[in-house]
Amino acid sequence: MNQEDELVLKITKEIVIKMIETGRVSINSFDQVFKQVHTTVYESLMSKSLRLEDLE
């Protein structure tokens, strides 16, 4: 697992934990929500990485 993958998982975990603590996510919807958050975080990180590489 590379550094970017670890970062995406850590961010996703923190977001989902906060959502559980605030009652926005239930155990029944955890799987679906985790996948959605993970995809969003991953795509966001990749788009930022691509833009930074273009500047170099």
Unreliable spans are: none
Order of helices and strands: HH
Roughly how many Å apart are the termini?
25 Å
Percent of sequence in beta strands: under 5%
Biggest pleated sheet:
none
Question: Could you explain the architecture of this structure?
Answer:
With 56 residues, this protein is an all-alpha fold. It has one domain (3-55). 80% of the residues lie in helices and 0% in strands. The chain has two helices and no strands. The chain has helices at residues 3-21, 30-55. Helix 1 (3-21) crosses helix 2. The two termini are 25 Å apart.
Q: Main traits of this protein?
A:
mainly alpha, 56 residues
What is the strand and helix layout of this fold?
Elements: H1 3-21, H2 30-55
Helix pairs in contact: 1-2
Summary, kept brief:
80% of the residues lie in helices and 0% in strands.
